[in-house]
Design a protein that fits this description.
Blueprint (H helix, E strand, L loop, with lengths): L15 H32 L16 H30 L6 E8 L2 E6 L4 E3 L1 E5 L3 E8 L4 E5 L4 E5 L5 E6 L4 E7 L11 E7 L1 H9 L7 H11 L25 E3 L5 E3 L2 H9 L22 H13 L20 H4 L3 H4 L1
Parallel strand pairs: 1-5, 4-10
Antiparallel strand pairs: 1-2, 2-3, 5-8, 6-7, 6-9, 9-10, 11-12
Helix pairs in contact: 1-2, 4-6
The structure holds dinuclear copper ion.
Dinuclear copper ion binds next to loops.
Length: about 350
């Protein structure tokens, strides 16, 4: 799909026109000064050329006024570029809290995607128009990069950590999805399509893909088979590990006085490298699950932990998430049970 300017990809997200505006501004400033300087250069070359071989040029005295002028003007212009760019950057890289989440795993050389409702896709992403979509991305092998030119958005997909990207599509259609990080022999073939659909069409598509297990349900299954529950009981029974109810999104106190926000990266680290951050009041006894769970399974476990009451869906709403100050009754119980 092309827009009316052949060199510019289609514009189909809420911030694509903002990126374009900034781009045109940068290009405009560049073109303006290139022309201005070229014209002045040519004019001065002719106007002040040496007219006779014995001509001695007039000495030039400095001018504070001129110096100030050509320092202040470029400074102001470059600050508008910085301010505008920074504002756009923060808007793009801070996903809104109410977005629909889609998990993305990159590997040589394909994209594996899964919706929170369970539907899986390979090299294709179906999304409804006019809704905020958040991609939670990681890689199974090397660094890849999700690039959707029509949405003017792009982010690295890095092994061992989660990166996010969000967009809101404004126009139904089919758009390119590229890998924008050289990742080996078939990098150029690591492409896909984003299908933006009307809400009703998208619902049809979703219901046509029933029978899928949601990541959260698969995670719950895994939680049982891996024996997580024997230490991380729902109500702190077992007592060997902190309960995971209401954990997600909360600030968690650690041994040594620091604290950490329980996000995707923290949970993943705790599964693969449990000794890295020990929750206050607990012993470093958890074994690593490195090599026993795939990226997909880690995502499922995270989805399950997120789905537990008190997670991001309703921060602070669950009694488990309440601080002792808010719920004096709970403060009597061992803090291990809550944290
Ligand atoms: Cu994956 Cu390039």
């Amino acid at each position: 799909m092309q827009s009316w300017i052949p060199l510019i990809p289609d514009s189909a997200s809420t911030f694509s026109w903002k990126v374009d505006a900034l781009y045109f501004y940068l290009s405009g400033v560049t073109v303006f000064f290139t022309l201005l300087i070229s014209a002045v250069l040519i004019f001065f070359t002719i106007r002040y050329r040496r007219r006779s071989p014995y001509e001695i040029p007039r000495p030039i005295a400095g001018s504070h006024k001129l110096e100030t002028l050509w320092t202040v003007i470029p400074f102001v212009i470059s600050m508008t570029m910085f301010g505008w760019g920074a504002q756009l950057y923060f808007e793009q890289y801070k996903p809104p809290p109410n977005a629909i989440e889609v998990y993305v795993v990159g590997k040589q050389w394909m994209w594996k995607l899964q919706h929170a409702t369970g539907q899986r896709e390979i090299n294709e992403l179906h999304v409804p128009v006019g809704r905020k979509i958040k991609l939670i991305m990681t890689s199974e092998d090397v660094i890849h990069d999700v690039f959707i030119p029509a949405f003017r958005t792009k982010a690295d997909v890095v092994p061992g950590r989660y990166t996010t990207l969000w967009f809101e599509a404004t126009k139904p259609g089919k758009y390119h999805l590229f890998c924008a990080e050289y990742c080996g022999m078939n990098h150029s073939g690591m492409t896909g399509s984003v299908y933006v659909m009307e809400a009703r069409e998208f619902d049809n598509w979703l219901s046509g893909n029933v029978g899928n297990v949601t990541p959260a349900a698969a995670g719950q299954q895994l939680y049982q088979t891996l024996g997580c529950a024997s230490c991380h009981g729902a109500n702190g029974e077992g007592g060997r590990g902190p309960t995971l109810v209401g954990l997600f999104g909360r600030q968690t106190p650690l041994e040594g006085g620091q604290s950490v926000r329980a996000d995707e990266a923290y949970i993943k680290e705790s599964i693969l490298n449990p000794q890295a951050k020990i929750v206050a009041g607990f012993q470093p006894i958890m074994p690593t699950f490195q090599g026993q769970v795939s990226e997909d399974q880690i995502i499922q476990l995270i989805a399950f932990i997120k789905s537990l009451p008190g997670g991001t869906a309703s921060p602070g709403a669950s009694p488990a998430a309440g601080t002792p100050a808010q719920s004096p009754a709970a403060s009597g119980s061992p803090t291990q049970n809550i944290r």
